[in-house]
Amino acid sequence: MKKRRQAKILDIIKNGSVETQEELQSRLLEAGYEVTQATISRDIKELRLVKDLSESGRYVYSTVRKSDKDAFSTRAAGIFADSVISVDNAGNFACVKCFSGMAGAACAAIDSMQWGGVLGTIAGDDTIFVLCKSAEEAQGFKSSLEKSLNVKNS
Q1: In whole angstroms, what is the distance from residue 104 CA to residue 83 CA?
Q2: d(Cα 74, Cα 76) in Å, to the nearest integer?
Q3: 53 - beta bridge partners?
Q4: Do strands 118-123 and 93-98 pair parallel, antiparallel, or not at all (unpaired)?
Q5: How confident is residue 26, by pLDDT bands cut at 50, 70 and 90?
């Protein structure tokens, strides 16, 4: 439940501005997660969320500060290590297999990294499809993800 809730938190802050823990709590409740403020506070700490200045001039929760890309890559690698089972590619698609319920968090991490050559992603419960610009980009994505994970495909 914790991993799914945290994946939902990443999804919520990715798709909208969240300024306070109370606002995050409200959005989680709308999504079916009844949690306390203390739980949200722990999740924010574990996910290493930060408040960053938005384009509207307000401070909102974010997965990464603009000047903190390397630290985020380390966190994303941790999310991948806990989530990803294998990665493969066919044509200009890559397919990332994850443990059940973990594809959302891994997909949010991929999206946040703004990987060159990736046009878009879509996640189910345990699978992520990654659309790349070309077959070469898909192979490069697969290779990069494998290197960061040290994953061996079955």
Answers
A1: 10
A2: 5
A3: 59
A4: unpaired
A5: very high
CB atoms under 10 Å from CB of 76, counted, come to 20
Q: What is the pLDDT of residue 74?
A: 62
- Mark 127-139 as b/e (b = at least 16 C-beta within 10 Å): ebebbbeeeebbe
**For residue 5, what are the contacts with CB-CB under 8 A and spacing of at least 6?**
28, 33, 35, 43
pTM score over 0.70:
no
Helix (H) or strand (E) holding 90: strand 84-90
Of 19, 11, 10, 9, which Cα lies nearest the Cα of 56? 19
What stretches of 19-68 show up as alpha helix (H) in DSSP?
21-30, 37-47
The string of pLDDT tens digits covering residues 107-121 is 988 887 777 789 999
| Both tokens assigned to 39 | 């739980």
